[in-house]
Amino acid sequence: MSSEDKNKPNKSSEMSRRKFFNLIGWGGLLASVGGSAVGTYKFMFPTVLYEPPTVFKIGKAADFGMGVDERLKKERQIWVVKNDRGLYVLIAICRHLGCTPNWFPDQQRFRCPCHGSIYDIYGNVRGGPAPRTLWRAAVSIDAADNQISVNFLNRQDPDPESTAEGLTVEEPPRETAPYFVKSA
Question: What is the pLDDT of residue 49?
């Protein structure tokens, strides 16, 4: 072997500048595609749900007084109504366009501020453009701690009759389980 051969670099074992930048470029592209694929997969299956629970406990029946209780209107979007026969939960969503009505105890009426729908204490329509009565949520008493459990998605929605007073549903058929808890 001559002295020139010893000083000449071995091209097969060394990486050229072109090969090095090709390797960096393709590696970066593959890393970017892989990261995007993992991000898309995680987006399709989130690990955290940011919606409020649809089944929740509101306390014991003795915690609520007679009439309409508005304590849970902002937090849970419900009213708890208690009368001599028992307790039911009205969902605070107007059936016209989904606004939140307000309770006026002096008039014994729910009034929607958006378009003027008027409901009585049973959720019957007494005026305005609402086409249906207010929903009632399913309620039950948990045997473990005697608290009232509300299922927000299980709603009572009977067909109302048109009367001179408005859209009305007779009360006795509505006072059935799971939409009504009878007094003990």
Answer: 78
Cα Rg for the chain, rounded, in angstroms?
33
Burial bucket for residue 8 (CB in 10 Å: 0-12, 13-18, 19+): exposed
pLDDT tens track for 130-140: 999 999 999 99
Nearest partner of 78 among 20, 24, 13, 154, judged by Cα: 154
pLDDT digits (tens, 9 = 90+) for 68-105: 999 999 999 999 999 999 999 999 999 999 999 999 99
Percent of all residues in the chain with a pLDDT value above 90, rounded to a whole number: 78
